[in-house]
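To assess whether ligand presence alters the predicted conformation, the chain was also submitted together with iron/sulfur cluster. Input:
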Amino acid sequence: MQTRELQTSECRQCCSFCDRVVHPSGCIAKNCKFLYSYDDEDGRRFMGCMNKVFSVEIDVELFREAERTRHGFGGVKLTGSPIEPCRVSVERAYDGYGDAFDCTNPQFFDLRALCSS
Ligand code: SF4
Ligand code: SF4
């Protein structure tokens, strides 16, 4: 398996403030073998990624509640190199007009280049 190091998960080169994120809903949809879950001592279930493509552990009940809403749970910060099943995207925090919002780093959006197979 060829891997690429994740250079960065955020770009602040203009006022748009972009972040690369991974959507845990994709891990479930793809039934990814690297998705793990466990129950803590209070009986709450958490899930995470063995590959650390995202490093937070997500409360499964809160995730399910969010998934029932129109916006869904959304993405979490990308912390490692994604592989083919990972559902990744770039979230832009601010939209605006003028030079301050002109993208000077278009390759940041090329998420296919990040993925290893
Ligand atoms: S490897 Fe990708 S698809 Fe699999 S659990 Fe991790 S983030 Fe999700
Ligand atoms: S729009 Fe382009 S330059 Fe601006 S923060 Fe996003 S990736 Fe970086």
